[in-house]
Amino acid sequence: MFTDQPRQFIWRDRLLLVKEVQGRWNRAAPWWTGPRVRAARGEEIAAAEGDLLGEREIWRVEAGNGRQRGVYELARTVDSEDWVLQAVLD
Q1: Which residue numbers delimit the DUF6504 domain (predicted)?
Q2: Distances from the Cα of 79 to the Cαs of 49, 64, 76, 82, in angstroms?
């Protein structure tokens, strides 16, 4: 699906470097919340393109800057190259 793993990200104005990948999985968004379904219901949306299931690739990583490290979940959708910080676990 995706070729590149996350290498770095910014959180709270700090650049964090990914030190270790703890896990990776794919998760489909609930189909009833997707843009195509909302368009079929007559809702006005920007675009009804992309993956019908809204599949997201999620990476659990250990990242930090210097001595401080934490565990984070980063995610992106099939039709996006942008990573989103989904969760801060530690």
Answers
A1: 4-88
A2: 9, 28, 8, 9
State the greatest distance between any 2 C-alpha atoms of the chain, in Å, as a whole number.
52
Burial 26-44 (b: 16+ CB within 10 A, else e): eeeeeeeebbbbeeeeeee
pLDDT bucket at 1, cuts 50 / 70 / 90? very low
Q: CA angle 50-55-56, nearest 5°?
A: 115
| pTM for this model (two decimals) | 0.72
Given a contact cutoff of 8 angstroms between Cβ atoms, the answer to whether 6 and 19 are in contact is no
| In contact, 8 and 15? CB cutoff 8 Å | yes
Average pLDDT on 42-54 reads 66
Every domain of the chain and the residues it spans: 8-27+53-88
Average pLDDT of 16-38? Answer: 86
